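quick one before i forget lol
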Amino acid sequence: MSTEVPTLEAFLAAPVEQVRAVAPTTLVWMVEGTRRSAALAGVDLHTEAYARWTLDRMNECVRVLFHHGVRHVFTPYLTPSHFKELTPHYRERLIDWTGLVVTEPESAELFVKNGWRVRLVGSASMPALRPHAERAVALMPRGEHTLWCSLVDEPGAPWNELLEAVARSGARTREEAIRALYGEDIPPATLMIGFGKPMVTPELVPPLIIGKMDCYWTQRPGYRLTERELRTVIHDHVYVRRTWRQDKTGRAEAAVRFRRFWEEGPTLGLGMHLGPFWYPLPFQVPHGG
């Protein structure tokens, strides 16, 4: 990697090959608020149009991620909270909606045509989803880019699957455990893009996949990742956050110049109620030295 740090403006306008050269191989993409997103777009949440509209938005975001060089995208597709809901007719539709990524012809064709794969991870504990998981493998046996959709119906399920894979395979290292669970080598994730409350759990982020992971949280609900937003995050991840030095001589003393920033800085993660939802509290950056 070049030691020259491009400005954000230059990175946003750079050829996609330049972004691919520094993009993370593995990324965690934690999406929530799909119903909120559909409501904001005027989509009827009580019809199948909601599920298909959401699938189209997801696949467009997947295209952006893969086009910019990300090879493995891990996303929580079903979580225990989905199965706890009492919203009328919601749970009855979950299985069919989850399978749309491979049963909807246009969606399956998009992955096959581009040489992408989708994998439904965790279907072993959900018999109703096994046919969808098997169909995904049959349709897309190989690919340079993979969308790993994690299916978790109960708290603790990711640990159970991990430990079962280790016991079954006799894995002795993290790399061996990853191969046992996912069937191939996958580098740990170094970047996460999440939504809403800053929070990480094993049900949202697979334990084996967590690397030294820079985390970013958007407050735009649903599948709304744009090329500009992704490039902005990658620029920060690759260039802005890389401040560590081997020789720290004079580094701490440099903080004195920005005294107010360090002594009066905000606490990230505080929030407020915005209607029935959580939203981060705004904060002001201290002025002066």
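fyi The mean pLDDT is 94.
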